[in-house]
Every structure is written in structure tokens, then in C-alpha cells.
Design a protein that fits this description.
12 strands, 8-stranded mixed β-sheet, disordered C terminus, alpha/beta, two-stranded antiparallel ribbon, single chain
Length: 244
């Protein structure tokens, strides 16, 4: 699969991409919540994504609740499809004056009609054997109605749950906000068809591209920071596969 790596400001690179050329966006933008020099929110990137995303496409954006509240106006015109919670194994310091924060969120946005959006079913192989009697659907339900039996097998497929535990990359990360493969994989499977193209405008060390490649998806990765673009280049050239 093709992995394009671009060094530069994401707005400049996005401006060069053709209209309706991207199947999905999976990205972890700067939240704009610290004094770190790279942590600056860029308000125009969402507008550029609107142009280059296919009508069937959607975007998954990592962030904190505070980030989404502060920048909600930048998502005007987008519909919110769903959100997931990434549960980490560690969190903020014991000395914090708030609850110890052990999670981040990722929110899926789309435009147009939900019926046109690609939806890849994501499952985990940990179902418990049982039989469920489906009752007649309530009046507000628009799907199939009627009562049916549903049986699951022990250790068989179960629809991915919205709270996903994945160990963070602390101690092995090549980028300070690096996401583990276990949290990127379900988002890519959910939003991008096989052979499609995933875009990450804030690619860091390139983890989105590594997971996309393993899942037989193409990827376009953009990183502005000289240091982390070099790290990304080295990861791919050395084929450090799996070091997400």
C-alpha cells in the first residue's frame, strides 16, 4: 500500500490535495492546552478536510472534552456520529488537584447523510455464549422489526465496545502524544474501506500510517516538526513495524 509522507504545515499540504480524494481522517491534533511550542490549535484544518473528504468519508479526532468544547465552532456544519473513550493504564500525577485522568476521547464526525457514510463493522473475539430473544422494535426504531433469536459463540465475535482499553506508549514512544496501535486500528477499520486512503494531518511519528499499512489501507501523513518528521522517515525506512 502507498504511504505518502509530507513535511510541512498541514494547511499548505492539504491545499494541494484533490477534492473528494480521502476516504477517512484519523488524527490527534494539538489540543492547545499547554505552553509547549508545538501545542497550538489550528482552526482551518477542519475546513480543508471538508473539501478533500469523499461524500462517504468521516473523520475521527482525538481530544479532550475541554478541547472539543473550546473549539466546537470549528466543527460547525459537521454531524457527530459517535465517540469512543480510550482507557489508559496510567494517568495524571498523584499530586493533581482533580480526579486522576486516565482517558482520552475520539469523536467521529461526518457531513451529509449518515446513510451515505462508510461503516466498517469492528468486532472483538471475546463474546460469551448466549441466546438473546429480540423483541419487537420500539416505535422510534427505523431498522428491521419482529422477534428473532440471536446466538453467540464462546470466544466468537462481539461488536467493539465504545470504551477501549489500550496501554499507552509511555516508556517506548517516539512522540510525546503517540497513540498505540490498539486504539488506532478500530477507528481505521470503522471509517476506511480496504484499499482506501487514510489521512493524518498531524502524523507525529507516523503511527496512523503503520496501522493503515498493516490493514491494507493507503495513508497520507503530514508532519510539520523537523524532528518528528525525521523520526517518521526513519521508522518507515527501518521498517520498525508494530512500534506504533
Amino acid at each position: 500500500m502507498a504511504i505518502e509522507k509530507h513535511h510541512g504545515n498541514c494547511l499548505d499540504v492539504l491545499a494541494e490535495l484533490p477534492d473528494s480524494s480521502i476516504d477517512a481522517v484519523v488524527t490527534d491534533p494539538p489540543y492547545g492546552q499547554t505552553a509547549l511550542p508545538w501545542d497550538k490549535w489550528q482552526s482551518q484544518w477542519i475546513k480543508e478536510v471538508e473539501r478533500i473528504l469523499k461524500p462517504s468519508g468521516s473523520m475521527w479526532v482525538f481530544g479532550t472534552f475541554r478541547m472539543f468544547v473550546e473549539h466546537w465552532g470549528d466543527f460547525a456544519g459537521w454531524n457527530l456520529a459517535q465517540d469512543i473513550v480510550w482507557e489508559k493504564h496510567n494517568g495524571s500525577s498523584f499530586h493533581t488537584d482533580r480526579f486522576r485522568r486516565v482517558h482520552e476521547q475520539a469523536v467521529q464526525f461526518y457531513r451529509g447523510n449518515w446513510s451515505n457514510i462508510y461503516k466498517g463493522k469492528v468486532v472483538t473475539m471475546d463474546a460469551v455464549k448466549r441466546t438473546v430473544r429480540k423483541k419487537k422494535a420500539p416505535p422510534h426504531w427505523h431498522g428491521a422489526t419482529g422477534a428473532t433469536d440471536y446466538s453467540s459463540e464462546e470466544g466468537g465475535p462481539r461488536l467493539q465496545r465504545s470504551v477501549i482499553f489500550a496501554r499507552s506508549q509511555h516508556g517506548s514512544a517516539l512522540h510525546p502524544t503517540q497513540k498505540p496501535e490498539a486504539i488506532l486500528e478500530p477507528l481505521i477499520l470503522n471509517s476506511c474501506p480496504a484499499g482506501g486512503t487514510v489521512l493524518d494531518p498531524f502524523a507525529g511519528s507516523g503511527s496512523t500510517g503503520f496501522v493503515a499499512q498493516r490493514l491494507d489501507r493507503n495513508a497520507i501523513l503530514i508532519e510539520a516538526d523537523d524532528k518528528y518528521f525525521s523520526v517518521m522517515q526513519k521508522r518507515f525506512s527501518d521498517d520498525l513495524f508494530g512500534a506504533a
